[in-house]
Structures are given as C-alpha cells and as structure tokens.
Amino acid sequence: MKKAMVILSGGQDSTTCLFWALENYDHVEAITFDYGQKHIIEIAAAKTIAEMANVLHYTVKVPNILRSRSPLVDESQTLETYDNYEDMDNIIGDRVELTFVPMRNAFFITIAANYALHNDIYTLVTGVCQQDNANYPDCRESFIQSQEKTINEALGINNFKIVTPLINMTKAESVELVNGLAMFGENKCMDALAYSHTCYSGVYPPCGKCHSCVLRAYGFEQAGVDDPLIVRAAEEQMNQ
Hints:
Layout: E1 3-7, H1 12-24, E2 27-34, H2 41-53, E3 56-61, H3 85-92, H4 104-118, E4 123-125, H5 141-155, E5 161-163, H6 171-180, H7 188-193, H8 211-223, H9 228-238
Parallel strand pairs: 1-2, 1-4, 2-3, 4-5
Helix pairs in contact: 1-2, 1-6, 6-8
C-alpha cells in the first residue's frame, strides 16, 4: 500500500497537495502545526479541509517555540502589504519576504517525519514552492533534498521521501493542476479551496493586500479561474 503524510497548513498549496496525494496514494494522513501564528484561523481551515477529504488529521501544538521578527509570530511587527502583484514584485525583489520564520520548515518536516514513521509512512508531501516570489530559503528544492538526506541519515535508511508536487509551479500552474483533479464533473479540491485560508492577516474575507493574498489572486487571475474562496465570501455577504 502506498501511503503518504501531508503537511497541511490549511492554505492553498497544502490543500492542493492533500487532494493530489489522494489521487496518487492509497492511504493519506495529514498533520497541521499550531506554532503561535497570528493567522491561527488557518488551523480551523485545515481541520475543515481534512474532514472534507476524509483523512486522519493531527494538530500538533508547538506554540512559543519559534522566535522571529516575522509579523506572523511577532505581534510588534507590521505586516507588509501591496497594491498588486507588480507592486509586490518590485518591493520584494531579491530579498526574503518579511514573513519568513527561520527554521520553521525544518522544524515542521522533522516532526511530520516522526509522526509519519510512527504510522509506517515513508513519504512526506509538502506544498513548498520556490516560485512564490517570497524567496524563502526553506522552500527551495535544494533545501528539501538536504532534509530528505538528513532524515534518512538520522534513521539509517534510504527510503524516506519528501515529495513536493508544486516546487517549480507558478500559482497559475497550481490552479491548473487543481482543475485537472476533477473527476466525473466533481472537483473536491476546488470545493475545499473555498474553505482554505491563505491571508497572513488572519481575517475572513481575506485582506487582499498581504503577500499571500496578492499571490493567490494573481494565480487565479492568470489561470482564468474564479477563486472559490472569494466566491464563497461574496455569496455569504450577499446573503447577510
């Protein structure tokens, strides 16, 4: 039986990877981290999405462990906002986006690998992407390869894999991937994306100005697809 553990933040990429894994593995589980993030609403989103996917879901609480000046965990820092994709691209340039939390992904991958191995799962799926205009060092393919090697070295094995379906995709390409997951007129991944949470401000409807919101909007626009999250928010506002 092919089995996989998916790191599920509750955002667009991890939700896409969860449903991608369901298409490619016989048994899928998911793990989410409560690390004291200000946008804690993503944990509730992850729970809802895991229920929609009907997978076993773990929420691991590791608050107040990661230290950073990132506005995601430091209440004193202001979240950088942008008017549009071009504005964001010009402002960030080659620097690392200010939301970067040092060692976060290395920490999460280590814990997720522990949970996976406990359940005899030797494949970890994560939605990191090195095309996201954030320049996060721990979203690069070279980092993932090094983590995979480290885990195998730590265990004295050579068959633990870290799979990154979106690593070289633009946001538009990841939206197109979601469209390809539709079967028999039903697209459960697109349905789940309506309940995903990407906004770093931690608000619903999303702020539309943070790095994650701008990138998500640009991806759906480039793909020519309506974002189901925005459609859902608009419909709810109309019904109020």
